[in-house]
Amino acid sequence: MKRLFQAVVLLLVVLAGSTPLFAHHGNASYENKETTIKGTVKQWLWTNPHSFLMVDVTDESGKVVHWICENNAPSTLVNFGFTAKTFKPGDQVTVVMSAVAKNGTPAGRITRVILADGYVMNSEVR
Amino acid sequence: MPRRLVASAIAIAALTVAPVTRAQAPAAGQDRQGRGGRAGGQGRPAAAPAPNGQNENIHIDGWNRKQEALEATGKKPGPAPVHDLSGIWEPVPGYRDGVFASGPKNMPSDAAHEAQMPYTPQGKQAMQSHKTGFGTNIAPIAEINDPFDNCDPIGFPRIILFNLRAVQIVQTPKQVLMLYQNTRTFRTIWTDGREIPKEITEPRWFGYSVGKWTDPTTLVVTTTGLDESTWIDNVGRPHSDQLVVEETYHRADEFNIDLTVKITDPVMYTQPWYPLKNFRLGMNSPDFDIREMICAVSQQALFNQLLKNTTDSGDKPEK
Prior knowledge:
The complex is a heterodimer. Chain A is an alpha+beta fold.
């Protein structure tokens, strides 16, 4: 059973390695750790080489943390329906990230964004 | 197996197999400007609401029109035309198959392929000095010394070995022009019979290129005179001013070109090597609009600032 599990994990790793999600820099500064935040869009930067969704998250004590959420290049995201106008300041979003900064700063890589009404904006590539 | 590795593997795997569906694509040519234009500016594609509550992966061009390689639409290719590469091309079967972030398809930068690379001692030293975003020389973002990270011109051959996306080929009686989506750059390949310069007095980012038809459907392009400050690919392969690149464009049929690239540089490599072998480019519709993909200095500076300062140096952003 353990061997089968290891084989499946290995296969998935190989599959995952076949299509890097982000082309301009690698993962050396991030660790793979799925992280979900809920907050308010401060800014949507539709820029090369990657786009950024800046999100303010308020914790229970009222402290606001400014998250920098990195997304793919616009030339990839357009194929998923993202545009320069997809988000505007004030939008309520849930952001799911696949990896976050190793040093603990609030920065990560977006897997998907769930809009206020539940609509899911994936950023995966084929 | 260490628990952390397993967890990482599962996270990566989840990314790869995440459910991106291809539901209800609009008809080709349908206006997709509604995508992202929902009232309130949210991200829902207004033209084609997805039934399952999530977005779709639909390849669109610069005018937001759905596009597929002609062969994928079910059309049958005719025979290859003679001495003709003109058209709008993209990697197939996947339009992102030419991203080559981890190195070109036939020579990615992993331990096995790096062991095959025919570096000279000087080449090995030059390679080791390159701190990259991907490959065996991967470095934390703050340490990356990729010249393209400052928006230096991507140069040749990196323009075809990294982010090779859409390319329009235009032919005149004396030239083949290649117009690239990535960095919105063009190359001129002279087909008027001239030879490559014997002496290079001015190295260029994209060098000096001549093309010769070796048979009715094969164009062989030789390029030299290349600026030494560029990298060959996205994983830092070095070159000297002795670099000669040979590209072979074989028009397999009406809808397909196979591209082979040969690298020769006796300063950096003991023998030629092939980053691409018969890499396939498929023809797009002639109304395909190539979108902009530009390295803008101000945007790049913002990118560098956001990531370098927040993920590497410990210079944490305001909380």
